[in-house]
Amino acid sequence: MQNLRYVGKNLFIEKLSINNILKRNKTPFYLYSENQIINNFLKFKKVFKKTNPLICFAAKSNSNVSILKTLGKLGKRQLHLQCPFLEKYKPQRKE
User: pTM of the entire structure?
Assistant: First the structure.
């Protein structure tokens, strides 16, 4: 993961120290890198470009609205979200 790295003994996500984040938040909590999600999606899409797949994401696997919105915008008619409360982000398959 390019957005998760150690600098010495300190773990960073993007340019943020996880130790500093821990000081400001109660645990447990989830911490995501939007850049890493975007990079992973684009890499996946590129690998399967020749087959023109219908890329699906089950909202039940992670219902974080910010992540669903990011994936929905990234898909641009190539990602199918199984999530009724995000219908406006639900693209149709591009043929």
Answer: 0.70
Give the Å distances, CA to CA, from 35 to 5, 72, 88: 14, 15, 22
Give dist(CA 75, CA 36) in Å, integer: 15
Domain that holds residue 72: 49-95
Q: Rounded to the nearest 5 degrees, what angle is found at the Cα of 42, between the Cα atoms of 73 and 4? A: 100
Domains: count for the chain = 1
Residues pairing with 17 in the sheet:
12
Determine the Cα–Cα distance for residues 82 and 92; give it in Å rounded to an integer. Answer: 12
Instruction: Give pLDDT tens digits for 11-54.
Output: 999 999 999 999 999 889 899 999 999 999 899 889 998 988 77
